[in-house]
TrEMBL record, chains A, B:
Its EC number is 2.3.1.35, 2.3.1.1. The record marks T115, G116 as: Involved in the stabilization of negative charge on the oxyanion by the formation of the oxyanion hole. InterPro entries: Arg_biosynth_ArgJ (IPR002813), ArgJ-like_dom_sf (IPR016117), ArgJ_beta_C (IPR042195). It comes from Pseudomonas turukhanskensis. The record marks A188, T189 as: Cleavage. GO terms for cellular component: cytoplasm. The gene is argJ. The keyword Ubl conjugation does not apply. This is Arginine biosynthesis bifunctional protein ArgJ. Pathway: Amino-acid biosynthesis; L-arginine biosynthesis; L-ornithine and N-acetyl-L-glutamate from L-glutamate and N(2)-acetyl-L-ornithine (cyclic): step 1/1; Amino-acid biosynthesis; L-arginine biosynthesis; N(2)-acetyl-L-ornithine from L-glutamate: step 1/4. Heterotetramer of two alpha and two beta chains. The lineage of its organism: Bacteria, Pseudomonadati, Pseudomonadota, Gammaproteobacteria, Pseudomonadales. HAMAP family: ArgJ (MF_01106). Pfam families: ArgJ. Gene3D superfamilies: ArgJ beta chain, C-terminal domain, L-amino peptidase D-ALA esterase/amidase. The keyword Acyltransferase applies.
Length: 405, 405
């Protein structure tokens, strides 16, 4: 059961961005496993991609071609086309070429995305065979169906949408996402697609996406593993009746930036809420760092500690495990006598020791909740970082141990 | 059940090194929880200590005083005296002072070691009350009893012993260890004590220990957490009828070095074999690195991946998870097309792709074993590193989630 994740919210259509879903029967006959997205002519497209050195064939192609004119995004589930070498690259290119041929755009205007089993050859013919139906299905109203169509091991579709009005014109930002990176290994991958009808240059769009991803998708972790296929795309169709938005657009730029960030954050947190075996949604905040990096190091040391994650699963306010994780985070010249740790609003450790005001009952009350905050005050500077994670449950082991067997 | 860990081997006494065990009733009435070790006058003592910034009070004291004359090591279980601030330092000092008073040595000649619950005040009076009985129990033949006496959540005592002969004189190296660092959080801590009757200067002894620890205790990982209390000590009593061993002692030096390494390795691996919920003993080897650090980065990325650990638990030859972990290890300019991965002797991935010769049956046969080797060939240079770890089982989650509750 996902933690605090309700049914899909209303996903407002984005003029100039259509989605079509069909079934190639890659893993199971009849399953919706192919999604085609069409961007209106003149759209700008930005992307952020996995840093895993073993990035999959579609990622290599999408990364290369995102800088040019992009008209179609082609996503399949059920096969990641990763660890497949040169034949994998050719397979991804073939599916793009087929879609280009059917739609009369250059092959480089189609970006491929794959998620699923690693190391199996991509079933090119099956995907090619599903393209006509997907194209026939294209509609601006298909966000919810596409959110379901890109799911692999997700238990719920994930989407978010924001609108704001400027000079009487409504601007929309809508997005969908799937499955946290590598939380289900061979059915891996985080994918995110966000579109807006604002008009934004490719360069600025890339900046907006990078900034939003660094505060959302790049701040979530289930188990510390990074997929070979992670991608997040941001498309600006420019169909809203507004001039191009630049960094000099003042409030309009700020509103768009905030809407992109809000949608990214909601999509990213939805991935954590639906993390494998998750029973808790945990916010880890490291404040008072001398650098952003040391805040991240501390937050990730806490978020990745199996001991803390099992304590969270058990609703056990085990503050010693948190102190120990902070202590091994590798922060140079860490003065433990300046560190305070809070569980929710409860101070559990003050100046490196158990807080004199702390009682187990207070800690237990926070830990009993589904949404838990861990805040570490380092007392070294003014930098802050926040990340989101889950607990480590029996269900996580069961799912990951029993998968494939 | 520990993986491939039999009953204690014969632990040869070390002349000049006596051990005494008694009960202070720290956690449970009657439990042997205090161990005193006496080093003959003129002994050299070396130590390596946790790098966790939150190091416990006894670690701070032991680290400070190990450079002087050391005559006694005082260990208690049941309380880690960690996260206890200034009062904790005073408490540790008081137990040392009491033992010094009883034995007529300077207070600084007693080094304290604690393992157990974090953040609780050390029960100084209970420990003081147990010292007379421990001193009365001192004997060179007490290694096995001491191995049991330092246990916390270990399911079996751990010891190792080597002897070699030089000029007709037998030299002995014997050691004991307990519980892997932070594999059981609040009953944390890896402790190791190794003694030899060879005569070695403090400086050289420290070099020998650091070198051995870097190849053994510092190459094991259960869950990536590092205790606040980890220590390993090496004592040379100089009671064997041989001249002092120096780096110029040729074969004699080499034999001693090897014996210390062998004992360290056996003790370290015993900790992994008895890791929490362990059902597999896993050797991860990264070869062909440009630097030792990148080999370690790759090996730890594999050893710490919950996805790989759950696959090991499930005996699932999930090679995609291994490639993905190597890819995210953070090695700069990693050329994945040069990487080979072996499971035991079976090549599962060649030049970054699934090996054409590989079959799931071959992989499954290796994974079905209790002892599993994962070897990654990076093809970048000549450096190698090996580490040892376990799988991630239901039992791990159960133990760590249910502990304290």
């Amino acid at each position: 059961m996902p933690v605090g994740l309700g049914p899909l919210p209303t996903l407002h259509p984005v003029t100039g961005f259509e989605l079509g879903i069909s079934s190639a029967g890659i893993k199971r006959e009849g399953r919706k496993d192919v999604v085609v997205m069409r961007c209106a002519e003149g759209s700008s497209v930005a992307g952020v991609f996995t840093l895993n050195a073993f990035c999959a064939a579609p990622v290599i192609l999408a990364k290369k071609n995102v800088v040019g004119e992009v008209r179609y995004l082609l996503t399949n589930t059920g096969n990641a086309n990763a660890g497949t070498g040169e034949p994998g690259l050719q397979a991804a290119a073939r599916t793009c070429a087929k879609l280009a041929e059917l739609t009369g755009v250059p092959e480089t205007a189609v970006l491929p995305f794959s998620t699923g089993v690693i190391g199996e050859p991509l079933p090119v013919e099956k995907i090619e065979g599903a393209l006509v139906a997907a194209l026939a299905d294209l509609s601006v109203d298909n966000w919810a169906a596409a959110a379901a169509g890109i799911m692999t091991t997700d238990t719920q579709p994930k989407g978010a949408s924001r609108q704001f009005t400027h000079d009487g014109v409504t601007v929309t930002v809508t997005g969908i996402s799937k499955g946290a990176g590598m939380i289900k290994p061979n059915m891996a991958t985080m994918l995110g697609y966000i579109a807006t009808d604002a008009k934004v240059s490719q360069g600025l769009l890339q900046d907006l996406l990078r900034d939003a991803a660094n505060k959302s998708f790049n701040r979530i972790t289930i188990d510390g593993d990074t997929s070979t296929n992670d991608c997040c795309m941001l498309i600006a169709t420019g169909q809203a009746a507004l001039p191009e938005i630049t960094q000099s657009s003042g409030a309009l730029f700020a509103e768009l930036k905030q809407a992109v960030l809000d949608v990214s954050m909601e999509l990213a947190q939805a991935i954590v809420r639906d993390g494998e075996g998750a029973t808790k949604f945990v916010t880890v905040q490291a404040n008072g760092g001398a650098t952003h990096q040391e805040c991240l190091d501390v937050a990730y040391a806490v978020a990745h500690s199996p001991l803390i994650k099992t304590a969270l699963f058990a609703s056990d306010p085990n503050w010693g495990r948190i102190l120990a994780a902070v202590g091994r985070a590798g922060v140079a010249q860490l003065d433990v006598s300046k560190i305070d740790v809070f569980l929710g609003d409860v101070c559990i450790a003050s100046r490196g020791c158990r807080a004199t005001t702390y009682t187990e009952e207070q800690g237990a009350a926070v830990m009993a909740k589904e949404e838990i905050g861990i805040r570490i005050e380092l007392g070294r500077g003014t930098c802050s970082e926040t990340i989101w994670t889950t607990d480590l449950s029996h269900e996580y082991v069961r799912i990951n141990a029993e998968y494939r067997s």
